[in-house]
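Aggregate trends can hide what the representation actually does to any particular protein. The sequence in question and its C-alpha coordinates are set out directly beneath this paragraph.
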Amino acid sequence: MYDVITVGSATRDVFMRSRHIKIIKDVTFSTGEAECFALGSKLDVDYILFDTGGGATNTAVGFARQGLRTAFVGRIGRADVRGREVLRAIANEGVDTSLVVQDRNAMTAYSVILLTARGERTVLVFRGASAKFKPDELPRSRMRARWFYVTALGGNAAVVRAIFQQAARVKARVAWNPGAAELAWGYRRLLPFFKQSAVLLLNREEASSLLKVDYAHDRLVFEKLCFALPGLVVVTEGTKGAVVCDNERRYVAETHDIKVVDTTGAGDAFGCGFVGTYIQTDGDIRRALQFATANAESKLQHVGAKDGLLRRIPRRGLVRVRVSRFKN
Protein backbone atom coordinates (compact mmCIF):
# COMPACT_ATOMS: atom_id res chain seq x y z
CA MET A 1 0.00 0.00 0.00
CA TYR A 2 1.18 3.50 -0.82
CA ASP A 3 1.37 6.34 1.67
CA VAL A 4 0.11 8.82 -0.93
CA ILE A 5 -1.33 8.62 -4.44
CA THR A 6 -1.43 11.92 -6.30
CA VAL A 7 -3.99 12.36 -9.07
CA GLY A 8 -4.01 14.98 -11.81
CA SER A 9 -2.06 16.38 -14.71
CA ALA A 10 1.45 15.79 -16.03
CA THR A 11 3.11 18.24 -18.39
CA ARG A 12 6.38 18.91 -20.15
CA ASP A 13 7.37 22.49 -19.35
CA VAL A 14 9.71 24.98 -20.94
CA PHE A 15 10.59 28.10 -18.96
CA MET A 16 11.75 31.21 -20.81
CA ARG A 17 12.96 34.45 -19.29
CA SER A 18 13.63 37.53 -21.39
CA ARG A 19 14.44 41.08 -20.40
CA HIS A 20 12.35 42.16 -23.38
CA ILE A 21 9.12 40.98 -21.73
CA LYS A 22 7.39 44.08 -20.41
CA ILE A 23 4.76 44.36 -17.71
CA ILE A 24 1.93 46.78 -18.35
CA LYS A 25 -1.00 47.73 -16.17
CA ASP A 26 -4.33 47.25 -17.91
CA VAL A 27 -7.69 46.76 -16.19
CA THR A 28 -9.01 44.76 -19.16
CA PHE A 29 -6.89 41.81 -17.93
CA SER A 30 -8.19 39.72 -15.02
CA THR A 31 -5.08 40.39 -12.90
CA GLY A 32 -4.86 44.07 -13.80
CA GLU A 33 -1.47 43.51 -15.44
CA ALA A 34 -0.15 41.86 -18.60
CA GLU A 35 3.10 40.55 -20.00
CA CYS A 36 3.75 41.89 -23.47
CA PHE A 37 6.28 42.25 -26.28
CA ALA A 38 6.25 43.88 -29.68
CA LEU A 39 4.18 42.05 -32.30
CA GLY A 40 6.33 40.79 -35.16
CA SER A 41 9.58 41.18 -33.26
CA LYS A 42 12.29 38.60 -32.65
CA LEU A 43 13.39 38.65 -29.01
CA ASP A 44 16.43 37.17 -27.30
CA VAL A 45 15.68 34.71 -24.50
CA ASP A 46 18.08 35.17 -21.57
CA TYR A 47 17.33 31.87 -19.85
CA ILE A 48 15.65 28.61 -20.83
CA LEU A 49 14.89 25.47 -18.83
CA PHE A 50 13.11 22.25 -19.78
CA ASP A 51 11.34 20.60 -16.86
CA THR A 52 8.27 18.56 -15.97
CA GLY A 53 5.17 19.95 -14.32
CA GLY A 54 1.51 19.43 -13.54
CA GLY A 55 0.16 19.62 -10.00
CA ALA A 56 0.07 15.87 -9.47
CA THR A 57 3.67 15.23 -10.59
CA ASN A 58 4.95 18.24 -8.64
CA THR A 59 3.34 17.06 -5.41
CA ALA A 60 4.31 13.43 -6.07
CA VAL A 61 7.98 14.43 -6.19
CA GLY A 62 7.52 16.54 -3.06
CA PHE A 63 6.01 13.61 -1.15
CA ALA A 64 8.71 11.22 -2.38
CA ARG A 65 11.45 13.59 -1.25
CA GLN A 66 9.88 13.58 2.21
CA GLY A 67 10.29 9.80 2.29
CA LEU A 68 6.68 8.81 1.65
CA ARG A 69 5.89 5.87 -0.62
CA THR A 70 4.22 7.70 -3.48
CA ALA A 71 2.50 6.88 -6.77
CA PHE A 72 1.17 9.16 -9.50
CA VAL A 73 -2.08 8.63 -11.42
CA GLY A 74 -2.51 10.66 -14.59
CA ARG A 75 -2.51 10.53 -18.40
CA ILE A 76 0.35 11.05 -20.83
CA GLY A 77 0.93 10.38 -24.51
CA ARG A 78 2.43 6.98 -25.17
CA ALA A 79 4.21 7.75 -28.43
CA ASP A 80 5.86 11.10 -27.68
CA VAL A 81 9.18 12.00 -26.13
CA ARG A 82 7.52 14.36 -23.67
CA GLY A 83 5.66 11.53 -21.96
CA ARG A 84 8.82 9.50 -21.57
CA GLU A 85 10.59 12.53 -20.11
CA VAL A 86 7.83 12.98 -17.52
CA LEU A 87 7.97 9.33 -16.48
CA ARG A 88 11.74 9.27 -16.29
CA ALA A 89 11.92 12.48 -14.26
CA ILE A 90 9.46 11.44 -11.55
CA ALA A 91 10.64 7.81 -11.46
CA ASN A 92 14.17 9.08 -10.77
CA GLU A 93 12.72 10.81 -7.71
CA GLY A 94 11.30 7.54 -6.40
CA VAL A 95 7.70 8.02 -7.57
CA ASP A 96 5.91 4.85 -8.72
CA THR A 97 4.68 5.37 -12.30
CA SER A 98 3.00 1.99 -12.81
CA LEU A 99 -0.49 3.52 -12.42
CA VAL A 100 -0.04 6.04 -15.25
CA VAL A 101 -2.42 5.83 -18.23
CA GLN A 102 -0.65 6.08 -21.60
CA ASP A 103 -2.71 7.20 -24.60
CA ARG A 104 -1.58 6.03 -28.04
CA ASN A 105 -3.56 8.75 -29.81
CA ALA A 106 -2.90 11.85 -27.72
CA MET A 107 0.14 13.98 -26.96
CA THR A 108 1.44 14.68 -23.48
CA ALA A 109 0.44 18.08 -22.12
CA TYR A 110 2.89 20.91 -22.77
CA SER A 111 3.36 24.31 -21.14
CA VAL A 112 5.37 27.37 -22.10
CA ILE A 113 6.11 29.55 -19.07
CA LEU A 114 7.12 33.15 -19.78
CA LEU A 115 9.01 34.55 -16.78
CA THR A 116 9.37 38.20 -15.86
CA ALA A 117 12.40 39.63 -14.12
CA ARG A 118 10.48 39.78 -10.83
CA GLY A 119 9.58 36.07 -10.87
CA GLU A 120 5.97 36.19 -12.00
CA ARG A 121 4.84 34.24 -15.02
CA THR A 122 2.27 33.66 -17.70
CA VAL A 123 1.62 30.05 -18.71
CA LEU A 124 0.52 28.88 -22.15
CA VAL A 125 -0.96 25.39 -21.76
CA PHE A 126 -1.73 22.61 -24.22
CA ARG A 127 -3.60 20.06 -22.08
CA GLY A 128 -3.33 17.11 -24.46
CA ALA A 129 -3.73 13.68 -22.92
CA SER A 130 -4.39 15.10 -19.44
CA ALA A 131 -7.73 16.48 -20.58
CA LYS A 132 -9.11 13.13 -21.72
CA PHE A 133 -9.36 11.17 -18.47
CA LYS A 134 -12.27 8.73 -18.17
CA PRO A 135 -13.43 7.11 -14.92
CA ASP A 136 -12.99 3.58 -16.28
CA GLU A 137 -9.29 4.31 -16.90
CA LEU A 138 -8.56 4.70 -13.21
CA PRO A 139 -6.52 1.67 -12.05
CA ARG A 140 -8.86 1.15 -9.11
CA SER A 141 -7.70 -2.33 -8.14
CA ARG A 142 -4.23 -0.89 -7.48
CA MET A 143 -5.25 2.49 -6.09
CA ARG A 144 -4.77 1.67 -2.42
CA ALA A 145 -3.16 4.24 -0.18
CA ARG A 146 -3.45 5.93 3.18
CA TRP A 147 -4.00 9.27 1.42
CA PHE A 148 -5.12 10.52 -1.99
CA TYR A 149 -3.85 13.98 -2.98
CA VAL A 150 -6.19 15.24 -5.71
CA THR A 151 -5.19 18.19 -7.90
CA ALA A 152 -6.88 19.99 -10.82
CA LEU A 153 -8.71 17.69 -13.23
CA GLY A 154 -10.10 20.19 -15.70
CA GLY A 155 -13.57 20.11 -14.21
CA ASN A 156 -14.06 16.42 -15.05
CA ALA A 157 -16.86 15.67 -12.59
CA ALA A 158 -17.07 11.98 -13.43
CA VAL A 159 -13.39 11.43 -12.66
CA VAL A 160 -13.51 13.51 -9.47
CA ARG A 161 -16.51 11.51 -8.27
CA ALA A 162 -14.80 8.20 -9.10
CA ILE A 163 -11.66 9.20 -7.18
CA PHE A 164 -13.61 10.13 -4.06
CA GLN A 165 -15.60 6.90 -4.32
CA GLN A 166 -12.37 4.91 -4.55
CA ALA A 167 -10.97 6.74 -1.54
CA ALA A 168 -14.04 5.82 0.48
CA ARG A 169 -13.81 2.22 -0.74
CA VAL A 170 -10.21 1.76 0.45
CA LYS A 171 -10.64 4.04 3.50
CA ALA A 172 -8.07 6.55 2.22
CA ARG A 173 -8.11 10.12 3.46
CA VAL A 174 -8.36 12.81 0.78
CA ALA A 175 -6.44 16.07 0.48
CA TRP A 176 -8.03 18.14 -2.28
CA ASN A 177 -6.59 21.15 -4.07
CA PRO A 178 -9.31 21.80 -6.68
CA GLY A 179 -8.52 23.73 -9.83
CA ALA A 180 -10.42 26.67 -11.30
CA ALA A 181 -12.63 24.39 -13.41
CA GLU A 182 -13.74 22.46 -10.32
CA LEU A 183 -14.30 25.62 -8.28
CA ALA A 184 -16.53 26.94 -11.08
CA TRP A 185 -19.10 24.28 -10.08
CA GLY A 186 -20.04 26.48 -7.14
CA TYR A 187 -20.15 25.89 -3.40
CA ARG A 188 -23.35 23.86 -3.27
CA ARG A 189 -22.14 21.30 -5.82
CA LEU A 190 -18.70 21.13 -4.24
CA LEU A 191 -19.93 20.71 -0.67
CA PRO A 192 -20.26 16.87 -0.71
CA PHE A 193 -16.63 16.58 -1.87
CA PHE A 194 -15.51 19.19 0.65
CA LYS A 195 -17.14 17.18 3.43
CA GLN A 196 -15.23 14.07 2.38
CA SER A 197 -11.90 15.90 2.29
CA ALA A 198 -9.64 15.53 5.31
CA VAL A 199 -7.69 18.54 4.03
CA LEU A 200 -9.04 21.20 1.67
CA LEU A 201 -6.45 23.53 0.15
CA LEU A 202 -7.42 26.87 -1.43
CA ASN A 203 -5.85 30.27 -1.87
CA ARG A 204 -7.50 33.39 -0.46
CA GLU A 205 -8.83 34.61 -3.81
CA GLU A 206 -10.37 31.21 -4.56
CA ALA A 207 -12.03 30.97 -1.16
CA SER A 208 -13.45 34.50 -1.30
CA SER A 209 -14.75 34.07 -4.86
CA LEU A 210 -16.25 30.66 -4.14
CA LEU A 211 -18.15 31.88 -1.10
CA LYS A 212 -18.98 35.28 -2.62
CA VAL A 213 -17.38 36.96 0.38
CA ASP A 214 -15.38 40.17 0.16
CA TYR A 215 -11.65 39.43 0.13
CA ALA A 216 -11.11 41.53 3.25
CA HIS A 217 -13.65 39.63 5.38
CA ASP A 218 -11.64 36.53 6.21
CA ARG A 219 -13.78 35.84 9.29
CA LEU A 220 -16.75 35.10 7.04
CA VAL A 221 -14.64 32.81 4.88
CA PHE A 222 -13.72 30.71 7.89
CA GLU A 223 -17.23 30.68 9.28
CA LYS A 224 -18.54 29.26 6.00
CA LEU A 225 -15.75 26.74 5.47
CA CYS A 226 -14.13 25.81 8.78
CA PHE A 227 -17.31 25.48 10.79
CA ALA A 228 -19.20 23.67 8.03
CA LEU A 229 -16.59 21.03 7.20
CA PRO A 230 -15.23 18.16 9.31
CA GLY A 231 -11.68 18.34 7.93
CA LEU A 232 -8.91 20.93 7.89
CA VAL A 233 -9.23 24.01 5.71
CA VAL A 234 -5.93 25.48 4.50
CA VAL A 235 -6.01 28.94 2.92
CA THR A 236 -2.80 30.40 1.48
CA GLU A 237 -2.38 34.15 1.18
CA GLY A 238 0.81 34.57 -0.86
CA THR A 239 3.41 36.75 0.85
CA LYS A 240 1.04 37.22 3.80
CA GLY A 241 1.38 33.56 4.78
CA ALA A 242 -1.26 30.91 5.33
CA VAL A 243 -4.11 30.06 7.69
CA VAL A 244 -5.37 26.64 8.80
CA CYS A 245 -8.51 25.96 10.81
CA ASP A 246 -9.78 22.80 12.47
CA ASN A 247 -13.27 23.87 13.67
CA GLU A 248 -11.91 25.06 17.02
CA ARG A 249 -8.57 26.75 16.39
CA ARG A 250 -6.97 28.97 13.82
CA TYR A 251 -3.28 28.57 12.96
CA VAL A 252 -1.61 31.53 11.24
CA ALA A 253 1.83 31.24 9.64
CA GLU A 254 3.97 34.15 8.59
CA THR A 255 6.50 34.27 5.74
CA HIS A 256 10.06 35.46 5.23
CA ASP A 257 11.11 38.33 3.00
CA ILE A 258 12.79 36.42 0.17
CA LYS A 259 13.83 37.14 -3.40
CA VAL A 260 11.33 35.38 -5.66
CA VAL A 261 12.81 33.83 -8.80
CA ASP A 262 9.80 31.88 -10.10
CA THR A 263 6.32 31.40 -8.62
CA THR A 264 5.54 28.27 -10.66
CA GLY A 265 4.62 25.33 -8.41
CA ALA A 266 4.73 27.30 -5.15
CA GLY A 267 1.19 26.24 -4.24
CA ASP A 268 2.05 22.60 -4.97
CA ALA A 269 5.16 22.88 -2.81
CA PHE A 270 3.10 24.28 0.05
CA GLY A 271 0.39 21.64 -0.33
CA CYS A 272 2.62 18.58 -0.39
CA GLY A 273 4.76 20.09 2.36
CA PHE A 274 1.75 20.55 4.61
CA VAL A 275 0.09 17.19 3.94
CA GLY A 276 3.35 15.22 3.99
CA THR A 277 4.34 16.60 7.37
CA TYR A 278 0.81 16.27 8.71
CA ILE A 279 0.94 12.56 7.80
CA GLN A 280 4.35 11.94 9.30
CA THR A 281 3.75 13.85 12.55
CA ASP A 282 0.35 12.30 13.27
CA GLY A 283 -1.49 15.55 12.73
CA ASP A 284 0.87 18.26 14.04
CA ILE A 285 -0.65 21.29 12.29
CA ARG A 286 1.92 23.76 13.56
CA ARG A 287 4.82 21.67 12.28
CA ALA A 288 3.04 21.02 9.00
CA LEU A 289 2.58 24.76 8.44
CA GLN A 290 6.24 25.42 9.18
CA PHE A 291 7.47 22.83 6.71
CA ALA A 292 4.93 23.84 4.07
CA THR A 293 6.10 27.45 4.27
CA ALA A 294 9.77 26.47 4.14
CA ASN A 295 9.08 24.19 1.17
CA ALA A 296 7.23 26.88 -0.77
CA GLU A 297 9.84 29.53 0.00
CA SER A 298 12.64 27.22 -1.12
CA LYS A 299 10.83 26.51 -4.38
CA LEU A 300 10.19 30.22 -4.98
CA GLN A 301 13.94 30.76 -5.06
CA HIS A 302 14.42 28.27 -7.91
CA VAL A 303 13.19 28.11 -11.50
CA GLY A 304 10.87 25.20 -12.30
CA ALA A 305 8.07 23.50 -10.42
CA LYS A 306 10.20 20.88 -8.65
CA ASP A 307 13.65 22.36 -8.15
CA GLY A 308 14.00 23.49 -4.55
CA LEU A 309 11.52 21.03 -3.02
CA LEU A 310 12.90 20.04 0.38
CA ARG A 311 13.69 16.60 1.77
CA ARG A 312 13.55 17.51 5.44
CA ILE A 313 12.45 20.36 7.64
CA PRO A 314 15.16 23.01 8.20
CA ARG A 315 16.67 23.21 11.67
CA ARG A 316 16.66 26.99 11.72
CA GLY A 317 14.69 29.90 10.41
CA LEU A 318 11.21 28.36 10.67
CA VAL A 319 8.29 30.75 10.54
CA ARG A 320 6.32 31.59 13.64
CA VAL A 321 2.83 30.07 13.89
CA ARG A 322 0.20 31.79 16.01
CA VAL A 323 -2.63 29.69 17.40
CA SER A 324 -5.93 31.06 18.63
CA ARG A 325 -9.37 29.71 19.44
CA PHE A 326 -12.42 30.86 17.53
CA LYS A 327 -14.86 32.85 19.61
CA ASN A 328 -18.41 31.52 19.76
